Structures are given as C-alpha cells and as structure tokens.
Amino acid sequence: MIMSNKWMSAAYGEELRRFIKDYQIEKLVDFPRGGVFKGVGVSPAIMIAVNTKPQTEPLYARIQRPPEDVATLRKEIEQSGIAMHNGALAVNGFALVKKDVTDIFEKMKTAGAPLEEYVEKKIFRGLITGLNEAFIIDSRQREELIETDSKSEEIIVQVLKGEDVCKWKANYRNRYLILTKIGVDIDEYPGVFEYLQKFSPKIEKRLDQGKHWWELRACKYYESFITEKIIWPDISQTSRFAWDNEGYYCTNTAYFISTKNTILLSLLNSKLIWKWLSSKTAVLGDPDNRGGRRLFTQYIKKIPIFSPFDDNLIDKFIKLTHTSIDTQSKLNQSIGLAERRRLEKQLSEAEAEIDSLVYQLYGLTSQEIDIIERR
Question: Is 21 helix (H, G, I), strand (E, B) or coil?
C-alpha cells in the first residue's frame, strides 16, 4: 500500500495502527522529503504487509530522495533499512528508530510516569481568537485604545505566539490580546467596542466565538494563563520549552503546563526527552532537513517523566535551570557579539550538565548515553 507517512504517528492513524499490529509487516519505506509524485507535496510511505500473524521484525527504510528506478530503490532499501522489533510498532505511534534506541525508551517508561499523570492533566492549549488581525494588537494600538478610554487596559493582556517561544525563556514581542471573555459588558469598554466594530463583518463569520460576535470562545482555564507555567510552540525543529512567571497569555500556536516545578523544564529541554519526542511525533516536511515536529498534547502527555527526584540532585537541577532561564533572558535582549558568545557558551555548559543529570536520573549506562549523543 502507498499512503501518506503521517498515519504512523498522527492521532488520526491510531485505528489503522491498532488494526495492522495483528499482521506481519515486512517493510515500511518512508519518503519524508516527498517528491515521489510530480506536483504533489505529500510525503508518502510504502507498507508491505502479509495476512499472517507477526513473525519477523519489519524492515524500515527512510529514503531521502526518490530513486530513478525500482532496482535502485530495492538496493537503497537493503543498504539503509533497519530491523524494528514489533514493540516499536505501538498503537500510540510507531517508534521509527533502531532497537537499541527503543530499548532506552522502554527503560525510560519504567522510571516514572507519563507527563499527563505527573502534572495532573494540567496541559492546555493557547486561545483561539478566530481572527487574530482583530484581537491581537501591537503596543501602538494598545496605547491608542487606552488613550480613547482608560478602562480598555482592563481587558488588554500580554500575549505570546508560538514563534515567540525560545528554549528556556520566551522572547516577548510587545503583542497584546483583547480579552473579551463571554459575559464581558462591552458597553463598559466603548473604545474597544468601537475598534472591534471595524472588523465586525469578519468577526461575525468566525466559527470560534462566544454568545455575542465580540466575545472569544468559551475557555475553562483562563486563570491558568496567569500562573507559573511551562510553555512551548505547537511546531518546532528543536526543543523549545520555556519558563513563564510573568502571566503571559498565548495563542493556539502554543501550549502550556500550569506548574511551579522548574526542574520539569530541565527534563523537557534535555537531549534525552527530545530524542524521545523526535521518534514519536508527526513532522511537517523532512525531519532531517528542518522539518518541524508537531508538539501537540497527544504526544507531550505521554513523555515518561522520572519520579521521585533524588534529593541530592534537586539543588543542582534548580540552580542549572535558573542559570539557563536567566542566560536565555539576556540572550533575548540586544547585546554585543562578544557578550552573546559568552552567554551562549555559558548556556551550552549548563545544558550539558543538565543532560548529564537527566541521564543519571533515568539510569542510562555509558553505552546508552553514547547512543543518544551520537544520533
């Protein structure tokens, strides 16, 4: 069968993965860069399966560019293909990595609990406005609204988009959200109402809205935005989990966990956790060539989080985490080249220490660490 490769990791492919696990898959041939069919942007995959119970390990091959002919394709599959044990073909998403990496992931699972249990399911998505051009404003527009009516400031809040989220600390870009929750008395905010009326034809057509055209859609966790939290973008090429203790709201291109636990931030930003995510998440484009990982809740909630923490390591984690947050905050500012290089070196050293502590937490051997580091 020839189909999109997304079914192997995306949520919508779960039923197909559940169905196929009872049958023998002989080969999975993945074309992450696409280009197989002229004029078609999709990244396809070939699955060869047999109507028997699983007996042998499937062969997985990632083909970077379409071959000239079938003979060339067969040869490349033989040369680059890796054997996968059947445990890698999990219903919640295929782990398309070698067995030695999968064994490490299994070790991680036994060391703790899924993230959603660890944080008591406090994983949230940013707000959907239905029309960002109306509800997301810059500092100049904010000042104009407040000059028109000082009460406007009460429902204008700082907001982040996914693109603003850097590893360790977001880079706030002076964006604001007009927070017209359901039930807001719009008559109390004439300046905001007059401004939104300019967009009323488009606002009224939104699928996502409240009881009145000027209201945002219902949200049960507004209060969680103003708590301490870990925030990350919905799509990223690298690990970009950031600490927020400034009460930023965020749009639907970002997700967040309401927590006071800064150590969790270090775990999420570690090489080990990113390796786990890289094997589980769907990707836009070619994962080996700047393809963006889809960091949706369905993947994030399953990250195996070590627990309980060793008391001897807590202080080290806290110190390194705060060093990383503070250093990235300074890097987000306009600084000279020499100072930037110094800070980047300082951050790199802190991250290396964090990675070492994370390996220690999960009990990885030197051989297993080498597997993670070299890939």
Answer: coil
- pLDDT tens for 318-359 read 999 999 999 999 999 988 999 999 999 999 999 999 999 999
How many angstroms separate the CA atoms of 211 and 128, rounded? 15
Query: Measured between alpha carbons, how far is 44 from 34 in angstroms, rounded to an integer?
Result: 6
For the beta carbon of residue 206, count every other beta carbon within 10 angstroms.
18
Contact 28, 45 (CB under 8 A): yes
* CA-based nearest residue to 260, from 304, 235, 224: 224
DSSP character string of 255-308: EEEE---HHHHHHHTSHHHHHHHHHHS-EES-TTTTPEEE--HHHHTT-EEE-S
Backbone φ and ψ for 230, nearest 5 degrees, come out as -110, 130
- Measured from the Cβ of residue 46, the count of other Cβ atoms closer than 10 Å reads 18
Interval 84-132: pLDDT, tens: 766 677 777 777 767 788 888 889 988 889 999 999 999 999 999 999 9
DSSP state of 127: B
pTM: 0.82
Q: How many CA atoms lie within 13 A of 164 on its CB side?
A: 22
What is each CA distance from 295 to 8, 241, 250, 254, in whole angstroms? 15, 11, 15, 9
- CB–CB of 132/252 below 8 Å? no
- CA 46 from chain center: how many Å? 27
Strand partners, 112: 306
Q: Nearest to residue 324, comparing CAs of 359, 355, 352, 350? A: 350
Q: Which of 168, 163, 154 has its CA nearest to residue 132? A: 163
Alpha-carbon distance of 49 to 30, in angstroms, equals: 15
Residue pair 251/129 in contact (Cβ under 8 Å)? The answer is: yes
Interhelix angle 366-374/337-361, rounded to 10 degrees, is 140
DSSP string of 53-103? ---SPPEEEE-SS--SSHHHHHHHHHHH-EE--GGGEETTEE--S-HHHHH
- Determine whether 25 is exposed, middle or buried from the number of CB atoms within 10 Å of its CB (0-12, 13-18, 19+): buried
Q: How far apart are CA 258 and CA 165, in angstroms?
A: 16
Between CA 286 and CA 191 the distance in angstroms is 47
